[in-house]
Amino acid sequence: MRATVRLVDHPQGQQVPETGAVDSTQEAEVLLPRDMLDPLWTREHLERLARAYWQYLHRISLGLLRTVYAPDGPTVVLGARSLAVLRFGAPRYRTGASGGSVEWRIERGMLVAKEGRGSGFLRISVERAPAGTPPGHARLEVSVAVRNFYPWLRGSGRFARLGTRLYSATQLRIHVVVTRGFLRSLGRLELP
Length: 192
What we know:
- The protein has helices spanning 43-60, 160-169, 171-185, and strands at 4-8, 22-33, 65-68, 75-78, 83-88, 92-95, 99-108, 120-128, 137-149.
- With 192 residues, it is an alpha+beta fold.
- The chain has one domain: 2-Layer Sandwich (Alpha-D-Glucose-1,6-Bisphosphate, Chain A, domain 4).
- Strands 1, 2, 3, 4, 5, 6, 7, 8 and 9 form a nine-stranded antiparallel β-sheet that branches.
- β8 and β9 form a beta hairpin.
């Protein structure tokens, strides 16, 4: 069984400031059979969605990136030496009648500037969309958002202008491509 996924484009694009926090949100509308809707609003399902995200990251990086799970939160590591690229806090779940989310605070890692440690977060949200769906189906709005992130690559001071361009052309662009790919993969409805 498959779902239909439509990526939502934002006309304003991604504007990266030379100082302060960076935000990035990728969204999709997912049309799926109505009988699959009710199990979605549980913590267990949100955990499965989160694991699907981490597994997609591993697969798309050809195994260079992997997620190491610990009681205090997951860490995305690079290569065999396990260099911590991003270390997250424990997941926080929100569930309700019309949706849910799982959120991890960004604690530290190679990609995080010193001033941003512990201030940003990654959130995956699933919300029931308003009416207007075909009979027997449900429409969901799924988003992956990074908020209040301070990229190390952007740098500061005189380097900030060049660092902003470098961050925008590399790390941010890769994040957007990977996240949009993950959202497209939800059409297979295969969660671990």
